[in-house]
Design a protein that fits this description.
- The chain has 4 helices and no strands.
- The chain is mainly α.
- α1 runs antiparallel to α2 and α1 packs across α4.
């Protein structure tokens, strides 16, 4: 049995905007409203941490947002509704 995973653009090198907006849109489209509420609440507490260690704050946000989601449903939501947004935000090389 092999494990599946979803890999986001954590260091924001591919897109021109911050990835936090994509996470919020994804959680809304996934209909994970309770998780979205906690994501925004915890995000507010991680802002001071991000000034000291941005990588740690980003990892905590991604862990909280995506841990335990069903991969097949996450892929479907991302492919159906976020793909076009992501394509328009790609940085010009």
């Amino acid at each position: 049995m092999t494990a599946n995973g979803v890999v986001p653009d954590m260091d924001e090198t591919l897109i021109s905007k911050k990835s936090t907006g994509y996470i919020i849109k994804f959680l809304f489209m996934y209909r994970a409203y309770i998780r979205l509420f906690f994501f925004l609440w915890i995000g507010a507490f991680l802002i001071p941490i991000s000034k000291i260690n941005r990588a740690l704050a980003v990892r905590c946000l991604y862990f909280m947002a995506f841990r335990g989601l069903r991969v097949d449903r996450a892929e479907a939501v991302a492919a159906d509704q976020l793909a076009q947004l992501y394509i328009t935000d790609l940085q010009d090389p």
